[in-house]
Amino acid sequence: MLTAAMALSMLQLFLLGALGPRLTADLGVSPVLLGLTTTFGFGTAALLSPLGGRTVDRLGPRRTLVALALVASLALGLIALAPGAGLLLAAVALGGVPQALANPATNKAIVAAVPPAARPGVTGWKMSGVQLGAFAAGLPLAALTAAAGWRAALWTAAVLALGTALWAARLLPPDPPAAPRGRVVLVPRGHVAWLAGFSLFLGAGIASVNTYVSLFGDRRLGLGPTAAAALIAVLGVTGIAGRVGWSKAARPGRAEWLLALLAAGSVGAALLLLASTGAPWLVWVAVLVFGVFAVSGNAVSMVLVVQRAPAGRAGQDSALVAAGFFAGFAVGPPLFGLLAQSGRWQDGWLLVAAEFVLAAAVAGTWAVRDRRGGMGGGVDGGVTRPSARGAA
């Protein structure tokens, strides 16, 4: 259930990326406007995330997961109806609501129902749902698009989202009575601030690849729309493996250093995309590396949130870290789109590499400071935390 919820929360992003060549042709959407769809969706998610986290803490995961799936279904249906850019952008903005709820609701469910020792593995599996969405967009839904059109693929996704809402309502245990309203925390502190900063730069790079790699494969490398969409599917499959594997390895005391390692590997993926302009076959290697490293960084950051969240704060802490990630998603694609529209694909991939370098720098700096803080008493942002081995 949690895996399905995460898949739905990001499905529109991957569909817009996989269907980019067809949308630019059928709706007259320019590369810059294609990037703005990501900005509208994730800008909304970033703004709503602090409120979404507090809402999850107050109402419980069942109510919010049902709402997530219903809103996702509505947003996908509106995209399918879009006659042009106006309704498309409005529908994508509405799709920011499930994105804002997804990590807080699923992490809250994990903290409530999963023993501490099993949480990293469960978190990895639920985070793999995002990449399951990438696979669905890049292969079965792209194949349906080739046979029946992109609107049919979006209507199919909307029906699946509606079915997931009914599944959540039947499967999940009832939430406790709504908690009293509390103060919404807008500014992250301590380890949450570091994770949000890391997620900002990581998200900017990931969103650019998700949004434009299919268009790059079609326009610059000559793969054709269907093969170019398959790049998203490959990214999705490797991302599932990467998120599950790295999350299981993210034990307390080790997870902090994994973030810098994953960001460094992401730089390699961006450089492979740069090199593929001269050797097109490298694009397949690039998306494999990208799936293993870049998309796994967000999963490991959520493992750290679950491990370190104080009682009653899993929803808000998850939302603040997710807000940083979504802000990166909102900023990255428009910048890349300006370069892509002028044919400067290589400069675009250099920009992505620089964003991943900054993510690695933030993660490495925090890991060093966190270790020193642990040696000096284990105080993180004003909250005394357990030793590394007992942090879960």
UniProtKB/TrEMBL annotation:
The chain crosses the membrane at residues 34-53, 65-94, 192-215, 227-246, 258-275, 281-306, 318-336, 348-368. Its main location: membrane. Residues 1-372 form the Major facilitator superfamily (MFS) profile domain. It comes from the Bacteria. Keywords: Cell membrane, Membrane, Transmembrane, Transmembrane helix. It is found in: Cell membrane. It is a multi-pass membrane protein. InterPro entries: MFS (IPR011701), MFS_dom (IPR020846), MFS_Efflux_Transporters (IPR050189), MFS_trans_sf (IPR036259). Pfam families: MFS_1. This is MFS transporter.
